[in-house]
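Shipment paperwork, digital attachment
Item: protein structure file
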Amino acid sequence: MKVTLSHFVLMLVLYAGTSPQLHAQNRTKEKNAIGWYAFNSTFKVAEKIGIHTEYQWRREDYITNWQQGLLRLGINYNFRPDVQLRVGYAWAETYPYGETPLNGMGKDFTEHRIFEMITLQDKIGSVNLSHRFMLEQRWVGRYSNAGLQNEDEFPFLNRARYMLRVQVPLKGTTVADKTPYIAAYNEIFIGFGKNVGENIFDQNRFGALVGYKFNSNVQIEGGYLSQIVQLGREVDNKNVFQYNNGFIASLLLNFDLTNKEG
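Attachment content:
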């Protein structure tokens, strides 16, 4: 894949400004402070096949209250060193955080997802680029009346995601063992199909990170996180946008379970 640095800068600028700016008079803005704590592990079980596990502990007021819990499991297939396919399942529990909860009745709700994802890697000098394309089939819990304790409906939703990430080592030309690095990413979420509601634009995320790779097994990174979310319904005839800002901290583990000695 041929990607110039100018193309990258243009794409990042375009996607960083993706949140709708039209009809500002017909929308409500809310702000929340968030802290996300992520654990990722990958287990290589064959030459081209791996198992991915992930849990994200997402909090409001940085750490005080629940925002969301997310568990994701997947199977990786590496077509080439720079092309990876992943398919899997995700479970999410979203809580009634902020001034206007995502659920109209102010309740927590469960979501089940199936997803398909392809990640393309590219390199320009010491700059590593990653393009991640994802499709999600979502069953989002809903209450038919406020008296229920559990969701009784799970309408089906489709969502497409694209993330562009750039990563640069702070020493040398590659992120090798014992190497610090900086990274930035931007991801846009678009809903489509039946039941999409108000949010064809679903959300946008931007992160600016500092990381350190200890060795081939252990890596950490963390930094600033911005999340813009559009609710799937109107409140008082207005679209509601959340501007959630805070930080993210991640631990990434990789294990090779193949028998290299044959």
